[in-house]
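Consider today's protein:

***
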Amino acid sequence: MTTDAPSQHTPPDPADAAPAPTARELRQADRIGAWSIAWMLLALLLWGGFAFLMLADYGPEYGDRAMCRGPLVGPVSDDLRCRDELRQWPALLGITALAVVVTITAAATTVYAKVLSRLERRTVPGARPQA
């Protein structure tokens, strides 16, 4: 005997089928978040050091200020006392390259931490998605 009554079977909810996040996955998301903060602080430190090397005066005191001007502030002095290896362009470009690499790494780990965090919240039963 067949009946024409609608079926009482409801399709399974995808949220119920998703496994709950394990403690290991939660620890990994927290760890990646901490690494992203560390990379960001290192990037800020490198960019701050680069700005200091480019803008700050250095060398022996001459009157009320230092004798040598920063590479972006004033003209380069030909005096031998102004020959600082960190103020030369090859060293400055190397510091810039290092700062760019660290900044890209910081951005990538921050994005990865955010993705893991969202995936973690998505698999937690009863959690509301954030907009």
Notes: Residues 14 and 26 are 21 Å apart (CA to CA).
